[in-house]
Amino acid sequence: MSEISTNSVGFGSVGIVSAQTAHFDAPLTLKSGAVLPSFDLMYETYGTLNAAKSNAVIVCHALSGNHHVAGKYHESDKSAGWWDNLIGPNKPLDTNKFFVIGLNNLGGCHGSSGPSSVNADTGKPFGAAFPIVTVDDWVNSQALLLDYLGIETLAAVIGGSLGGMQALQWTLAYPTRIKHALVIASAPNLTAQNIAFNEVARQAIMTDPEFYAGDYYSHNTVPRRGLRIARMLGHITYLSDDAMGAKFGRKLKDEIKYSFDVEFEMESYLRYQGDKFAGEFDANTYLRMTRALDYYDPALDFGGDLSAALSKVKAEFLVLSFTSDWRFSPARSREIVKALLDNELTVSYAEVTAAHGHDAFLMPDAHYHSILRSYFSQVEV
Amino acid sequence: MSEISTNSVGFGSVGIVSAQTAHFDAPLTLKSGAVLPSFDLMYETYGTLNAAKSNAVIVCHALSGNHHVAGKYHESDKSAGWWDNLIGPNKPLDTNKFFVIGLNNLGGCHGSSGPSSVNADTGKPFGAAFPIVTVDDWVNSQALLLDYLGIETLAAVIGGSLGGMQALQWTLAYPTRIKHALVIASAPNLTAQNIAFNEVARQAIMTDPEFYAGDYYSHNTVPRRGLRIARMLGHITYLSDDAMGAKFGRKLKDEIKYSFDVEFEMESYLRYQGDKFAGEFDANTYLRMTRALDYYDPALDFGGDLSAALSKVKAEFLVLSFTSDWRFSPARSREIVKALLDNELTVSYAEVTAAHGHDAFLMPDAHYHSILRSYFSQVEV
Questions:
Q1: Which of A68, A235, A358, A369 is catalytic?
Q2: Which of B146, B365, B201 lies closest to A267 in space, CA to CA?
Q3: How far apart are alpha carbons A66 and B270 in whole angstroms?
Q4: For residue A252, what are the β-bridge partners?
């Protein structure tokens, strides 16, 4: 998703930050039954943990996110963390009040254990041998990170998209350890259409001749073509038809050449985004992130009854959706709201008018941010 | 798009049909400036041309269609032509009244001259050397086919999707040769999102290592992986989110295996459709069909003013859209209707409530077919 970093007047930056690694030696049994004998989580923190250790907020990332949520590593960095517009002193998620934790999820490619990590048993990257991880596994590993940091209870968990699923899962798996969940541009599970887009992306990667069944590291190559296609497709679904129309429309790059080279600016944008991502991200991680999305379905063990699935939840919620988001439409957020209300839980719901589609959750929209500011301001720490 | 063939009681089939080839020796200058020194068009006809030669209807195909619109080649054929549910004795497009012509467009891969045809100059397939063809070129070649058949004036042209663009273009290019245009599930041009989907499909094909810059024929291979991805993606856009939800939802193929094999029925369907298409269709044709879609924009030379672009049109219109079609939404059809009305032309508009998305134009929906039947019944021949 797009990286946005703005620093409006009066809002502070968390400044220069650095990432840290937490190592876990106890075996972690995953939902699939596979066991990770040990693992690392890469994380960053912003703000200060208070004496009561009651002000911690975990930020969960989506498909291609990571632990670098706010601030910069060096003054010269061109861009800040991916949710820097939200997090900092006096920003909606105010680091004067909260101790904010960002981490890279298990299976990721930004420092936490994942397919590109070296398997201690073999001295080579895990590759295909790295297990499938799920939203449940991520939340369990995040709870272990909390233990590691000496924090029992979270003031809040916030996430957009796949991150929102993690926020929801926190309230199910650890009802006594989380006070507030902010579930943004998310859904209680994927639709058939969502799964279909993920499957096309995966097939593009897995049928790339340079995928080598996931062990491309040992062939000194990457399935760049497939990952590029996956990302181009992703970008279409992150934006609304209207936003694409407003930004690109049918604008031509130049005179029509009657060729398969770039003719329209839309094409140029997609190719650029695809190329950039394919040079940065790990294909095996992409596969696992999309699979985690596909599998998440807390109602599955309750005959599809989400209200029954949420019966043990105690947290208070902000559920927020964007009108032009067709990947995770407002209707899907309303399903979550209904299930929470069926359980007589405290839930605020906001449907924000925004043109940017699913990507809106990363944008510094004034109305959106004012809702988050207001919600966080009433979270007691 | 899906092939549908139903034969309800009381509706007849055109029976056993055979395709014919028309050869054209006069050079055809294309919109790009390229010249085809000669070319073939593969076509079929159903019904009988009347003495006044006033009852001809051309059926224009969409992305992956061809000249085999109705009937079967052999009694044992499993499926009939792609619009067999519409065309035949007593069917909505009644072959007792009309002489119906289906043809494979230039650049196609079903018998008309295209990239897989042998270039007489080299004795090898054209491959990348086959020029880019446009909607304008198709309509011009269709007019030459009419000349060849000794037909001056068409009772009607009908087409869905890209076929609808051809129907519209007929009224622009040959206003005195066409009485009625039936423009179904179409648009006056593609949106940025449409172009984006086409570009992802093309990039999947063109970055397939077996594409060989379009000259894969001489390498005895085909860019099957890329074409498969393109078709999988296409299928997502042909169906509505709701139709996919109703047909597949989150249905699992079996127990969850935590793997990248097929887990959901949605995935199984897409892979099947992709594999099937990749074994049948020519990738170079797919590229050209999507490019023709991208380029079509009759308002371009009129500063984007579609009403001005249609000022010389004389035909009467049926414009028809489907409520769940997000690829060519009803709003796009209404743009055509408005421009026609601005020119005080006779236009009927129908917005059919249908769940099947863009593919609805191929389905034997009773309401849809009753509208077509009613429209064709008042076409004078």
A1: A358
A2: B201
A3: 31
A4: A264
pLDDT-derived band at A158 (thresholds 50, 70, 90) equals very high
State the pairing for strand pair A154-160/A124-125.
unpaired
Residue in B196, B241, B266 closest to A199 by CB: B266
ipTM attached to this prediction: 0.94
Its pTM stands at 0.95
Question: How confident is the model over A79-134, as pLDDT tens digits?
Answer: 999 999 999 999 999 999 999 999 999 999 999 999 999 998 899 999 999 999 99
A 95-134: CB under 8 A from B: 131-132, 134
Q: Cβ of A225 and B206 within 8 Å?
A: no
Q: Could you confirm whether A161 is annotated as catalytic?
A: yes
* Residues near A257 by beta carbon (within 8 Å), at least 6 away in sequence: A263
A331 interfacial to chain B (CB closer than 8 Å): no
Per the model's pLDDT, the better-predicted residue between B9 and B52 turns out to be: B52
d(CA B24, CA B196): 35
pLDDT tens per residue, range A226-279: 999 999 999 999 999 999 999 999 999 999 999 999 999 999 999 999 999 999
CB proximity list for B229: less than 8 A, separation 6 or greater: A200, A203, A204, A207, A229, B201, B204, B205, B274
A229/B contact by beta carbon, under 8 A: yes
Angle at A312 (CA atoms; ends A309, A314), nearest 5 degrees: 125
Closest Cα in chain A, distance from residue B239 (Å): 9
Separation between Cα atoms, residue B3 and residue B81, nearest integer Å: 8
